[in-house]
Sequence to fold (125 residues):
Amino acid sequence: MIAFLLIRDSFPDEVATHFTLDGTADGYSSPAAALGQYMLVFAIEAAGTMAAGFSTRSALKSTRSLCVFSCGLAAATAYLLIAAMRTTSGSGGHTAQLPLFQVPVAVVVGAVIGGAAWLISRRRI
Fold:
C-alpha cells in the first residue's frame, strides 16, 4: 500500500497487472483495481498462513517456521508488486516489459527477509 501511494502519480490510466512467462504485460487494469488485486493476493496469503498455523501440532517450532515462511512470501510478493508498478509507470504508455531477473530477485528478497525473521525469532528475551 505504501509503495503504491508513493508512486501512484506516475501511473498511466491503465497499469499492467498480468505478465506472460517472458515478462510481457498481457493484462491491464486501473491503478486502483491493480492495488485491489494485489491486496487480494496478500489476503489469500494471510488466510493460507493462518489456516496452516491453526493446523500445526507442534506449536512453537511449526509456528516459527510458518511465520518465517509467511514473512518471506510477503516480502517476495511486495517486491514483485513494486517491480510491476515501477515497470508500468516507466513504460510511458507503451507495452510494459517486466525484466525476467525480477523473479529470482524477489525470491532472494523473500529468502533474506525470511532468514532475518528466523534469526529474530530465535532470540530469547
